Amino acid sequence: MPQRTLIKDLQPAQLIEGIFAIHNCQLGQTKTGKPYIKCLLSDRSARTPGRMWNASEDFFKGLPTDGFVWVEGQAQPYQGEMQVIIQNMYGAEPMESDLDWLMPKTRFDIGQMYSELTGILGTVKNPTLRAIVDAYLADEALMERMRRAPAAVTMHHAFIGGLLEHTLSLVRSATALLPLYPELNAELVIVGLFLHDLGKCQELAWDKGFSYSDDGQLVGHIVRGAIWLRQKAEALKAGGTAISEPVVNVLEHIILSHHG
């Protein structure tokens, strides 16, 4: 088996054999009317076009549109970039050891980042904000997704741990800048930053490469985040915790307005 090489390091005519993430796999047609497969292949380093010329519709139907595939092929320069000419390809399930090759990941320690973020949130004293923060932090399933989620599919922080890195970066910046703006409610700003993108935990999927979930396509992280906030606040009130509605409204506004 050829030695595993990251996509960004591929050289012309280099043989390729191994598991890759596949994206937007489509059946195309050549100028002479013959079917071929076109897709994007990726690992943690980059994406590159893939082409399989000797293909059929039946073969195509056995491939995932987005997911993971075992590929045998050869790198080939084309119009200023490297593409992969695929000789054979089939759907595959990556092992845990494969994921380090396949999924880009934050260069920082996820546990340390999460501890730093929760440490900053631990300084919040306003009773309503405190109760809301605690309700989110107690939601371990959601927090686990936050620690793993990318912040985007292809834009900023598009890697495992990207949402946490992005959120912590903003909270750090706010912590540094807020003393210059004493007229602002610093705790509202910090908690608003913590919550603003949390809906991406449900908007995005990262089990088969980075993509949008059905919820992400239909609802989106902004609306989902506002729905979650309202659900947390209502659950707290139902449990007997006093919740200031104006504070919830401001947090809701931060979530709903953060894209402008």
Describe the structure.
It contains eleven helices and seven strands. The chain is an alpha+beta fold and 260 residues long. β1 and β2 (35-42) form a beta hairpin. The protein is elongated and about 70 Å long.
Average pLDDT metric: 93
Based on helices, strands and strand pairing, what is the structural class? Answer: alpha+beta
What portion of residues is helical? 40-55%
Give the oligomer, counting copies of the same chain as homo and different chains as hetero.
single chain
Distance between the termini: 51 Å
Order of helices and strands: EEEHEEHHHHHHHEEHHH
Instruction: Kindly estimate the percentage of residues that lie in beta strands according to DSSP.
Output: 15-25%
Q: What is the secondary structure topology, with strand pairs?
A:
Elements: E1 15-29, E2 35-42, E3 47-52, H1 57-61, E4 67-78, E5 81-91, H2 96-102, H3 110-121, H4 127-137, H5 140-148, H6 162-177, H7 186-196, H8 200-203, E6 204-205, E7 211-212, H9 214-218, H10 221-238, H11 245-257
Parallel strand pairs: 3-5
Antiparallel strand pairs: 1-2, 1-4, 2-3, 4-5, 6-7
